[in-house]
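Why this split exists: single-chain examples teach little about how molecules sit against one another. For that reason, every record in the complexes split bundles all components of an assembly together and asks for one structure covering all of them. Below is a record exactly as it appears in the raw files.
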Amino acid sequence: MSSFLQQMFAQNPSTAEASRRPWVFLPYDRQNDRLGVVANNPDAGILLVESHAKGQARPYHRKKVMLVLSSQRHFALEQLEKGRPVLYLNAPESFGEQLRTVQQRLHLGPLLLSPPAERELRKDLEAAQANGLRLQYQPDTAWLSTEADWEHVFGKPTRGRQYLMERFYRHMRQTSGLLMEPSGKFAGGRLSFDEENRERYRGQVPVPPRPTFPVDAITREVVEMIDRLTPNTLGTSEGFDLPVTAGDVDVLWQFALKRLLPFFGPYEDAMDSREPVMFHSAISALLNVSRLLPGEMVRDVEAQYRAGKIPLPSAEGFIRQILGWREFMRHMHRVTDGYRTLEQSPDPPANRNANRYSPMLAKEINAAEPDRPAVPSALDAHLPLPPAYWGERSGMLCLDTVIAQVMQTGWSHHITRLMVLSNLAVLCGFSPRELTDWFWISYVDAYDWVVEPNVLGMSTFADGGLTATKPYVSGAAYINRMSNYCGQCALDPKKSTGPGSCPFTALYWSFLERHADLLSGNQRMRMPYNTLGKKSADERTALRERAERAVEQLERGEIVT
Ligand code: FAD
Ligand code: SF4
C-alpha cells in the first residue's frame, strides 16, 4: 500500500471520534474548503473517497487520473494541516457503496454533501441510498447560476425548443453585475466582443513560458496505483506538469491572469503547432475539480480589467466562457437528462469491432436500459471513429498535430476541439457517441456534464440544433486562415479535388449536399447552399468522390492522399 494511504488510514478517526461529528462528503470534483457545504459546517470532518470502480469504468487518460487523485490526496493533507479531520477511503467499490459501508461501520449520521455535478455520481449515490445510505443535501456553491436562473430565461423544458447561450449569458451578466456599468449598461456598451477575437497568430506577441510543477512522491504513488489497477489507460504519465497543491494552483492562476489573459481575446481562435497552448489559461481541469472556483476567477478577471491590466475584449471573452458557456452547458445536460430525453439513434453493433481501438470505447448499448448512454444522432452519423483519433498518422497535419498533443497532454484548446477534431468527425459522419466517449477518456477536463453537451450538443449537432443554431462545420479555408498547419501539410488546402487535395473542402460540400433536406432551409446556411447550388453536376461528383476516398482511407487507417 502506498505510504500516503498508510498515513491516511492510520489517522482515520475511531468509531467513537467519528460518530461525534458531522461529515461532509466531497466528491473528486469538489476539492475545496471554500465551498458552502464545508465553510458552513465548521465542525464537520471531510470524507474523501477513491473508487477503483470509477477508474476502471473507462480507460481515462493517465494524466487525468494523476491529476484528480494526486490533487485530492494533497487536498486531504492540506485539510489535516488546517486542523480539519479527514476520513479517507480507497477501495474497489463504487463511491456510494463505500459511503454506505463506512456510515454503518462508524455509526455516522446523514452525510452532508451538495448535489454532485456528474450525473454518473448522482446515479451511483441514488443506488446506495436505496440500500440504506443516508445523505443530506446542501446547495452547491461551486456554480454561478441556479436552476431558477435557467427557468427565468428559458422556462420549463419543452420538447423541440432551442436554447441560445447568448440569452442565458445576457441574464447572467445582468444579475451578477459582472462587467456592468453603474448605469445598468454592459461595459463597453456591448454584451460580447466575440467578433474582435479572431486574429491569426503570427508571433506578434511572444507566449510567455508557463510555470512548471515537478512530479512529487504523492503523484508517483498514484502512477504506481494506475499501473497496478488500470494498466490499459490512454496516454502517458511522462511530462505530467499540472499543479496538485493549493499553492501551486494559485501560482498557475496568477500567471494566467497576469501574463496570458491580457492577450487571450485576440488569439482565442488561433491555432499554431509551435504554441499549442497559446494564451489559453488551460485551467479547465483545475476548475472542474474545484481547485479553482469560478466565482473567484471571474471576479479576479473583472478586477484586472477595472485596473486597466486586461483589455475589455479579453476580459469579456474569458468571463463569457465561464459565466456563459460553462454554466449553460451544465444546465443543458441537466434539462435533457444527459441527452436521454432526445430521439435516440444507436450505432450498429459492428462498430464495436471496427478497428483495433474500438474496444477502448466498446460498450453494448441496450436500448431498453433506462440508464444507457445517450445516443442522439440527428445527422444519422454512425461510422466508427477511425484509427487516426487514437494516434495513427493520417497525413492530415492539423489532425495529426492535435491528436499527438492530446495523447501527450490530455488537453488541447477549444478551437482545435471544435474546428479540427469535431469538424472532421461531423463532415465524415463519425458516430457522435463514439466521439463523445473518445473526448471523455482523452481529456483531463472531461466529466459527463461538460463533455456530453459540448460534443453531442455544440460540436456535432447530434441534438438536432437544441444547442447550436447550425452545425459548426467548415472547409480547409478556415483552418488555413486560423492556423499554421496547412503550410507544412502534404495536402493542399487550396485544392478541393484530385490527389493531394485537402479533403476538408470536399468533405464540407458533400456534407451540405448529403444533409440538404435538414439544413438547406436554415437561414444561417443560406450562403453556402447558394454557392453549392452554383456548382455543376461534374464538380459535385468530383467533390463527392474526393470526400469518399478520404473517409475510406481514414476508416482503413491509411494515409490520406
Ligand atoms: P479557456 O478558453 O481559457 O476558457 C476558460 C474556461 O471557460 C475553461 O477553463 C472552461 O472551464 C470554460 N469553458 C469555456 N468554454 C466552455 C464550454 N464550451 N463548455 C464548458 N466550459 C467552457 N471543457 C471542459 O471543461 N471539459 C470538456 O470535457 C470539454 N469538452 C469539449 C469538447 C468539445 C468538442 C469542445 C468544442 C469543447 C469542449 N470543452 C470542454 C470546452 C472548452 O474547449 C474547454 O473548456 C477549454 O478549451 C479549456 O481550456 P482553457 O481552460 O484554456 O479554457
Ligand atoms: Fe488540415 Fe487540410 Fe490544412 Fe492539411 S491542408 S493541415 S489536412 S486543413
